[in-house]
Amino acid sequence: MRTRHPFSVVIPFLLLTLTGAGCRDSGAAGPTAVVAAQAPAAPTVPLPNRDGSFKFAVLGDFGTGEKSQYELAAQMVKLYQRFKYELVVLVGDNLYGSERPQDFTMKFELPYKPLLDAGVKFYASLGNHDAREQRYYKLFNMDGKLYYTLTPKPNVRFFVLESTYPEPEQIKWVETELKASSHDWKIVYFHHPLYSSGDRHGSDLRLREVLEPLFLKYNVSVVLNGHDHFYERVKPQKGIVYFVVGSGGQLRKGNIDRGSGITASGFDTDQAFMAAEIAGDEMYFNVISRPGQIIDSGVIQRRKITRCTRQAIGTGPTCDCAKCSSRCS
Questions:
Q1: What is the pTM of this model?
Q2: Which among 211, 224, 241 is positioned nearest to 56, based on CA atoms?
């Protein structure tokens, strides 16, 4: 892991199904299934586009004001014309360089104007290149908060963190919020990835030490990050699916370390964003590149903590792992 920010915390549409089930030596906290299409030539899993489902997009490391950002934004608009996603979650590094009013116009308001005009809301987290004053920018919908929660549907809750300076107060806050939440889908997003195959940055091990136990204990299903300038879907880690979507404007070609052993799918040759749809216990996703190709897709089954898996992470009754499937529910 490479050091790149202060850390003041003292406490620590048909394919292969990957599952993490039951009580495992790894400490997995419940099954997460992924049906995954490999980029770019394999068959894709279409978004169902069902009435009443929750639809959203994911974008990160995007605010360059360059032609490639505008071209990817055009793909986001094109998708919206047939897939009416309600909001876009921003996983940080929202603006690069200066942050004058004209920069917010050129690097955000103009490229995404058709979506903003259509009423799509953007909910930001802050990256290491972002001034903290961005939390007051109205179109980022942060309401002046560095970290916050968002509940767009009764069964879905987002937990938005500030990962450049993850102070103890924030860690205490997120544990309280996760513990209090009974939502089926708990999705966390912030800038610095706990798991990444990036040669430039890679996995943030210190942040992982503090946050991963909370995500396991309180039934988080999906974590969305940026920071490394490419797209990566990480193999499920202890039942949780991690995405790096740092490919919205900046791009670091050839930066995925293919020997890391954790990459389920990676794309580091062009810009890309993610579209997702939650329908019941399933989250469908398509990742779309600047030329309009679907470079990864699949289905995630939400995590469900059982008595057995609670024991596996130290929060429930004793369970005999050898007899887990028959004894625990």
A1: 0.83
A2: 224
